[in-house]
Records
---
Amino acid sequence: MNKVSVIGLGAMGSALAGALLARRHKVTVWNRSPQKADSLAAKGALRAQSARDAVLASDLVIACLLTYETARDALGAAGDALSGRTLVNLTNGTPQQARDFGDWVSGHGGDYLDGGIMAIPPMIGQASAMILYSGSHAAFDRSSTTLQSQGTAQYVGDDAGRAALYDLSLLSGMYGLFAGAIHATALVGSEKIAARDFMPMLLAWLEAMMTALPEMAGQVDTGDFFKDVVSSLGMQAKAYPNLIEASRAQGVSTELVEPMGALMNRAVAAGYGDADIASLVQVISHDKRGA
Ligand code: FVH
């Protein structure tokens, strides 16, 4: 029986602990609000009285908390207990937060793996749950069987921040998709078209458009955005204001779609009018205003 401790029993931490119990691991759990451990304890999990006790109970410790700030709240007093142990932190955060946390764990003599969970709680324990890991390769290899029991574990590099970079990039893709779908559904909804009736049309359209992504990737990697262009950015920038104007006329807020129009105009002004829309990757890159 592999011993594993799980710290943080929100929706995701509880699913992770449940998957470990289902695969016959000896699981110790801790949560700030202790009642969230009740159902796991009924399935055989051991309760720790503190996060530090949970760390001391196993060589492999998985933390899944709301933010890095809350991870520090939970684990701050357990630093010395991490010596000789592996901490796997599945809390969502930035690459820099992951690196700083990894340094803190290493400073206490522990191994660190950061993770990005590309799944929702009901998917945990199934192969469809992709979980990305970065940091100590030795720790990943050592813990691989346990980590694979929670989903498809993929190691993406020894920079502790790499998993967070992929995680946030994939979430960007998801939110872009959701933003488009939300606006589209509101726009047809302004004429009382039911979302359920519209969805098959939207899905077919999005599936067709997604086939363009590999080609876009090729253009980004070669930096050649002007070759064999089918639908130029200039043409699209001329049509895009119709989407904004019609939305306003239909009483639909344009806050989700306006930024794309502004970016297209900026790119055309910068000389990308005859380029493919993939050139927007170049236009927004190397912009460190937020840094
Ligand atoms: N749930 C999801 O769909 C997504 C899937 C992808 C990954 N995310 C990230 O996973 C982290 C945890 O998410 P969660 O769904 O488990 O979140 P909650 O159910 O809200 O549970 C939050 C846990 O954090 C504990 N907590 C909050 N503040 C503190 C604190 N100051 N000290 C100690 N623990 C704290 C909280 O404890 P309690 O409120 O029950 O006492 C929960 O255990 C997250 O990064 C997602 O972005 C989930």
---
Amino acid sequence: MSLQKMHGVWSNRWIFVLAATGSAVGLGNIWKFPYIVGENGGGAFVLVYLLCIALVGIPIMLAEVLLGRRGRQSPVNSMRYIVKEANQHKGWILIGIAGVVAGLCILSFYSIVASWILHYVVSMAKGTFDGLQAVQVSDYFGAVRGNHWVVAGLHTLFILMNVGVVALGVTRGLGLVARILMPLLFAMLLILLGYAIAKGDFAQALSFMFSFKLSDLTSDSILTALGHAFFTLSLGMGAIMAYGAYMPGKASIGQTVLLVGVLDTLVALVAGLAIFPIVFMSGIEASSGPGLLFVSLPVAFSGMTGGAFFGTLFFALVMLAAWSSAVSLIEPGVAWLVETKRFNRVQATVLLGGIGWLGGLGCLYSDSLFDFLDVLTSQFLLPLGGLCIAVFVGWFLPRKLVANEMNWEGHPMMEIWMFVLRYVSPVLVALIFVMAIFNKFFK
Ligand code: TRP
């Protein structure tokens, strides 16, 4: 059976742009980015993060899309195909397999955060936050987190939503979400930004996010920035490879990937610029951790005319962004299981969704499992996967094959990209790893 019949192919490159942006823009941008910026001291961290996006993220994203489009199957089988085509060692297929595992690990804690978001959609609509101060909102968030039955129910709902879309086939299930709802989310962020500029402490937010002392940097925060560059671009586990497989053969990979990377970064920066003015205005600690979004934004909305309405809309849109990201966490595994022909799409999706559901319940009852899966994936599995992808494409694939698939034969970009992919990205990832390990064990 052809890929076309088995998984579907997108009719043009814009659907790839939208789906890949849908995967990239998610809780990572709106929930995680602001809080890790806060925890890691602001500007210096932002700078390292931006460098990681440009020097590591984008070059590796190009490589990942290339592998998918060359192989035209699930990441595991795409790797199998390319390894054979280029006559390389079968061990490289592990990139695909590790990705499936990493995806399930991420889905487990991602779904719990998504269920807090779902809870907030309802709280906002009910006007729960009217007139509350930051301290009270913070208590409220604590109570939401502690309400295990409700969170478990919402987590189940979120998993079912994802199973639904992936069972339909992402090529069919995703187009609409990406086309209409992503632009709407961005518009909402701009409204919030406007509010933050008018009412919040915008000057302090700007200087917090963009002025830096190099002495603020620790090896830990550098590793966090690197890991987040992978996380936010959905890199290093095959999600983007799987989407690359559905990309039409003629479309230019270079422009497409650049656009996705820029959009993703823009959303994260705007989210930060909308949240920090409110954080500083209402006396919330910038370093208060995962609750940052959940405490700061209700404060902003409660001070806004029509706040309940805008707040409900905003959290609903964040939920949709989380949804269009989470589907890409199981798609690689599902596509693989379907290709083995032992499962149909529905069975495969239910199986992997079920594993994610169990993992999420685990995270719900154990905060340390939640933290462990977050650190394991962002700071270890994704950068490692990305490192392998860079080395494989940079050093082990015939240059001709790569240039041909990129449509970059004789193009100066090819030389620049190859240089970065061979020497810059892998060396940076390796260096940051070594530094972080050294500091963990020998200091
Ligand atoms: N990029 C998404 C976010 O920022 C999360 C995500 C979706 C992801 N698919 C992924 C992260 C694959 C790593 C790998 O919220």
